[in-house]
Amino acid sequence: MTQELARPSLVDWDLAAQIAAKLTPPGPTPKPREMSKAVESLRYFAHESVHHVHNITRLDAAENLRDSKILVVDRAGWAKANTQTFSVLMQPIFDRIRIKNPEKFDAALRGFAPTAAAAEMGAMVGFLSSKVLGQYDPYAGLVSPQAAESHPGGRLMFVAPNVLWTEQEINVDPEDFRLWVCLHEQTHRVQFAAAPWLRGHMLEQISTLGSFDVSPWDRLSAVVASVTGRGSGDHPDAGLGPIGHLLTDEEKATLSHLTAVMSLLEGHANAVMDAVDSSIVPTVKTIRRRFNARSDNHGALDRAIRTLMGMDAKMRQYSNGQKFVEYIVERAGMDTFNTVWTSAETLPTEAEIHDPQRWMDRVLA
Description:
Layout: H1 3-6, H2 13-23, H3 32-57, E1 69-73, H4 75-100, H5 102-110, H6 113-128, E2 134-137, H7 145-150, E3 155-159, H8 160-169, H9 174-194, H10 198-207, H11 216-227, H12 249-275, H13 284-293, H14 300-308, H15 311-332, H16 334-337, H17 350-354, H18 356-363
Parallel strand pairs: 1-3
Antiparallel strand pairs: 2-3
Helix pairs in contact: 2-4, 2-6, 3-9, 4-5, 4-6, 4-11, 8-9, 9-12, 12-15
């Protein structure tokens, strides 16, 4: 545990990690030889996909990119890594809360808030650990000095049991599917390489959420919503839940901005995946069709949990983000779209995500 993580927190992160580990199902257990081949191929396609991302996005940052560590992990490893990242992202917020109202903060520490928050975080991470195929974590280098040295550009993770399970479930070519998954996550890596200012900007925006004049518990919910992409859905206040009426216009604007950025990042990655043709992934049409149809087969409990966690709203945001990207690329070209990575001022607002022409009129005029 680093000194950074040892500062007073409204979440018992050790307990959250323990809860996540207990709630994380082990997943499929293939023979060692099969798992070893899967790990090897995921690493290979993670490197191979950078070339394709470069060709599709036309971002020079993608050429010979070597800034991130590539890890192939199991579900428990992913859960542990994300618990660590959440602790780093939220600590500046807790510091601000403590400075602003030390008495209430200390009272919360003595109460059940850290335990209750740990239960929520642990349950959320544990559930997601069985769903995530891959993830680019641009904040991983902040966890410790050792992490900063080993992967300063972030950390690229692939959850091998989930990839194996999914490709078997939808009955697709394993190598094609693994390359397809790698293309999405490598696009995120390229985004942050093309916009090296973006990580700091996101951290600054997230840290300002600590100034919200609402309860620590409600504030925590807002932060979790923002950093996991659970934002405002189709309406600026729709996803703020019970705290929406407590926030000032400035605070709502911060959450709206984070929602817009998350929509852009995921929408852009989805657009890259959809730009892939059979010359890159021979069975890509089959993969798309079966992967998209997979959501219709979720059980009732799974659907209920997804609804409670805001995952349906999250997917709508990503769809809106993809439409934003494709609208601009179709009308102005990829090179012109890449203006979006220039600065914070060229990022789209949430309103512009829904109306891409407004972004074009503002930024390209």
